[in-house]
# Entry
Amino acid sequence: MNNDRVKSGLLRRTAAFLCGAAMAFSSAYCFPGRTAQAAQRASADVSADIGLVGNLFCISGSDNADHAELQWATTLKADSFTLYRSTSLEDGFEQVYQGGGASWEDSSMELGKTYYYQLAVDTSGGRKYSSVKSLEPVTVPQGLSTYDNQKGSSLVYETGGYKVGDTYYSYSLKKHPGMNDIYLAETVSRDGRNFGSERNVADSTQNSDLADCKIESIHIDYVPEKNKVVVWAHWEKPSGYSDGKALVITGTPGGEFTVHHVYNPLGIQVRDMAMFFDDDSTGYLIAAANKEGQGANATMYIFRMNDDYSGVTEVVKTLFEDQYREFPNLVKKNGYYFLFTSQAAGWYPSSGAYSVTDDLYGEWSGLRNIGNSSTFSSQSGWIVDLKGRNYLMHAYRWIKGTGTSGTTLCPLYFDNGFAFYDYCPYFRYSTSTGDLYPVQQGELLSQDKPASASIASDPKYPPSRAVDGNYNNSFIADDDHKKWPFYIQIDLEDVCDLANIQTSWYICKGSEGYYTYTVDGSTDGVNWTK
# Structure
């Protein structure tokens, strides 16, 4: 289990696994690992190999964003992490966390104060530091919308479409009723809310391949520097997935459109895809692709588009050869290019990951884990840009229970070439201002609390690793005790009013199990109530 929370202390991160578990109960009323130490000055020995992000969040029922989640990552071989906090930028930094986790929550913040954080990473070669990050608790602006990750919601936009001059244009690929054809529909609005009748701007009269087909992975964008609408999508015959072709349409808002291709770019099959336009308006196609003889989606390709986006001119980079990643999405933040992908797993949840570079043509990092191993029971998807101020990972839950959400949206943060997202039951936001405030149903209780199991653990993977605040760490039973049923017990060391329990189950790709479990509570460790 990987998260446990409460109204005034609530279980959050909890994950119990027999083969590679990741439990992380966090605690709300104390600073885990804090020891009495003299305050210190901020260190100037800052390493570019460390990323630290902090975000404010609200407790359900409060209008104040006066709690914070700190998350960190590093490419250094770390022995342990120490997080320091101060209300001064230069000195007064006190230890608030020490351990092997990758996150910590600050539940003792006050409005009107600014808090500064710095992470120390201990390695065999010495201690390195992150840059200092600051957070200032605020009262949440009025009028924000609320997104519900548990029951499902839709993002609220004040206007839709692309604004060109005084007119809004909206585009969608559609079918005529009872047919397998595809056409591009354009609608127009003066206020971005009320759109008129559609205009068919491209169909099978331009290319007969649109008369009988199916379309997936649709991407439509507008490039204002060239006044160009660009459409790329995955094309297949009505049955099967053996073609792996791209449909390419471009045009001008209110003007003419052209169906340029239904083809395999440079002879390469492409399926899940995304478009990316760099600061100089150069266009790129990113696609889960394969050459003849490879399995579908074997390798990720980055193609450079031609000047009018009607085709591709070269392969910029191939990544993750024979690793079968899909659902690509590329974003640029602070000079870094982040490519997010999911593990190919059919309709099942899968582990998300990202790779990063500062040069599309240069060296890319290896795949880096992000979130938990199942993308919170979803498939990593596309990135929602909230006015460049905040971002969301928009993941899909293809298999879901009745009354639960078909999507999972996770606030996404960047620092120093690292990316982070975590689950929240709700968040408050505005697509017009970019405001974003996660909402938790209580404070984290279980992180670094005493943990035990009914079965013996591998000495390297004790139960404490399941509640250490790191999704990549795990409890693993030893080889002689991998048996069901079993239990993991966490001592919260207090009587708490539990409001929410979040459980992150380990995913074994190709052999996903359906876990059945119960949650029991006790005040004495002897008498339990389900």
